[in-house]
Amino acid sequence: MHDYIIVGSGIAGLYTAQLAARAGARVILVTKEAVEECNTRYAQGGIAAAIGAEDSPAKHMDDTLVAGAGLSDPAAVAVLCEEGPARVRELIELGVPFDTHEGEIALTREAAHSARRILHAGGDATGAAIETTLAGVVEHTTVDVRPWTLATEIILEDGRAVGVRTLDARTGERSAVHGRKIVLATGGAGQLFQATTNPTVATGDGVALAWRAGAAVANLEFFQFHPTALRLAGAPGFLISEAVRGEGGVLRNQDGERFMQVLHPDAELAPRDIVARGIAAEMVARDSDHVWLDVRHLPAEDVLLRFPTIARFCAQYGLNITKDLIPVAPAAHYMTGGVITDLHGRTAVPGLFAVGEVAMTGVHGANRLASNSLLEVLVWAKRLMHAPEWPMAPATFPTTFEVLEFAAGSGSQPFNRRSLQRLMWRNVGIMRDRDGLQQALNQLLAWHHAQPEPSSVAAYEDANLLLVAMLLTAAALQREESRGAHARTDWPHPRAEWERYLGLVKQL
Ligand SMILES: Cc1cc2nc3c(=O)[nH]c(=O)nc-3n(C[C@H](O)[C@H](O)[C@H](O)COP(=O)(O)OP(=O)(O)OC[C@H]3O[C@@H](n4cnc5c(N)ncnc54)[C@H](O)[C@@H]3O)c2cc1C
Question: What digits encode the pLDDT tens for the residues 217-256?
């Protein structure tokens, strides 16, 4: 019997694993592909923490609450902003090579942050620096790391999570691992949508595993669309970081005109949902599949120094970002909601924790503030180490729970992952309405009920994507308002009665 079974090897899995191992615990970490394959590795902009002389946790808290559009839990946000600076210092001590300026940690500003508080590494390669450093740290501990091992099910005994069933992704061999604490660190679900900045491993597995085990989920309807992913024929949905706008990049429509300043006083630095919708509307108005991001007015050497990864990636497709306009469009980016946890990462299922993008701690509310997600991982991973025994603490934010049953569906399309992604993009994407959501739910339910028992990694992922798609769509249908990242054309404004979380649970 191990102390911890950790599922996932992004920042959440690796950071938790090294904390536990260094405290003397016996840890197994399973991850479904190579260790470094995860969302973390692609993070560009950086990690937010109020460490600057002009900054304070209170200011960081205010910005986070504003971005969360009335649904960030103030108790969770206080924990994030107050404990964040100490956790970031620990990350520095672990060896993450954050960029410096004149001997001090360099801090940049991103959209909707009122101060320069974003630490970055390698210019725009923050996630890769964190992932590589933490993988190196874990390698020097006793953690038993098992790559190419898919977690397929949480093992329950008397209602308590006691282990994980696994499938070897290379041999197809089935196995099981047991531990006192099971930690889901499985990341997001960008693969739900046709256009995404997420890698292929982001298939919502953790939400599906936790749901089937009886945990509650919430806020999936607030899936965040990043305003600016590269939109170029033949190129993947590569992210063009918010920091590019933070450093002075501007958006232009097909006529070369700026358009964000008429939509929000902060123009290109408005909250993500507003910029994403502004771009989407501009694309519809001009019948185009992209707008332009322009950094040509900035000193070329500064751009290349600050954004080497973006410059290199674009150059592969013949774009010189210091001289050419960059074609960009919104793409699915971050799973704002997830498995409900308390302030110690405990889920509703005894023995089961969730940390990182898979978790819904209350921090992000209806819209995540840029660079808060990496910070949230560090803060909650540390708190998880000192979690009291179950039951999990009661909600610190108004929450109503609903038992969701999956009725029979109707829909004629045959299932494959691309059809699911297209349906989600079209009907459950940046702009939604009741009819489109209902139609999507009917088709998803029909697919779900026709799904055979999975036997391969891809089939497990498909089943997980389907389940998470149904949960997200059901929540988006119920939430009759627009708020943060959830925008409905038939309910275009926030409504006071929806100043709460909608927790979904399955019939046990
Ligand atoms: C392009 C991009 C840029 C970003 N930029 C920033 C930024 O600048 N700042 C910021 O704060 N956030 C940023 N984010 C968000 C942030 O990177 C993620 O929220 C964060 O890295 C999530 O970490 P995680 O450990 O929870 O998940 P991940 O890093 O995605 O790790 C999940 C792990 O779980 C494994 N896994 C999943 N399912 C299973 C299973 N069933 N069995 C076994 N293993 C499984 C995966 O293979 C992976 O190893 C960005 C995200 C993207 C995609």
Answer: 999 999 999 999 999 988 888 999 888 998 899 999 999 9
Q: What's phi and psi for 285, nearest 5 deg?
A: -60, -35
- The beta-strand segments (E) located in 245-325 are 250-252, 291-294
DSSP state of 262: G
Q: What is the CATH number of domain 227-332?
A: 3.90.700.10
Which active-site residues does the annotation give?
A: 272
Distance 37 CA to ligand 1 centre (A): 9
SS3 category, 29: strand
Tokens of 71: 């649904």
What are the tens digits of pLDDT across the range 276-285?
A: 999 999 999 9
Decide if 174 contacts 167 (C-beta within 8 A): yes
Nearest atom within ligand 1 for CA of residue 358: 26
Helix (H) or strand (E) holding 450: helix 434-450
Q: How much distance in Å is there from the Cα of 368 to the middle of ligand 1?
A: 14
Structure confidence at residue 342 as a pLDDT band (50, 70, 90): very high
Q: How far is the CA of 187 from the centre of ligand 1 (A)?
A: 4
Fold of the domain built from segment(s) 401-506 = Methane Monooxygenase Hydroxylase; Chain G, domain 1 (1.20.58)
Q: Among residues 170, 166, 141, which one has the least CA distance to residue 152? A: 166
Q: Please state the domain extents for the chain.
A: 227-332, 401-506
> For residue range 359-376, what is the model confidence (pLDDT) as tens digits?
999 999 999 998 999 999
Shortest-distance atom of ligand 1 to CA 126: 8
> Using CA atoms, how far apart are residues 217 and 501, in angstroms rounded to an integer?
10
Residue 35 alpha carbon, nearest atom of ligand 1: 49
Pocket test for ligand 1, best of 16, 38, 130 (most atoms within 8 A of CB): 38
435's tokens = 């009819």
Going by the DSSP 8-state scheme, the letter that residue 483 receives in this structure is B
Amino acid at 252: R
CA distance 195 to 333: 9
Residues whose beta carbon lies within 6 Å of some atom of ligand 1: 7-13, 30-33, 37-40, 42-47, 126-127, 150-151, 185-188, 197-198, 201-202, 205, 239, 334, 356-357, 371-374, 377
For residue 180, report the distance from its CA to the centre of ligand 1, in Å: 24
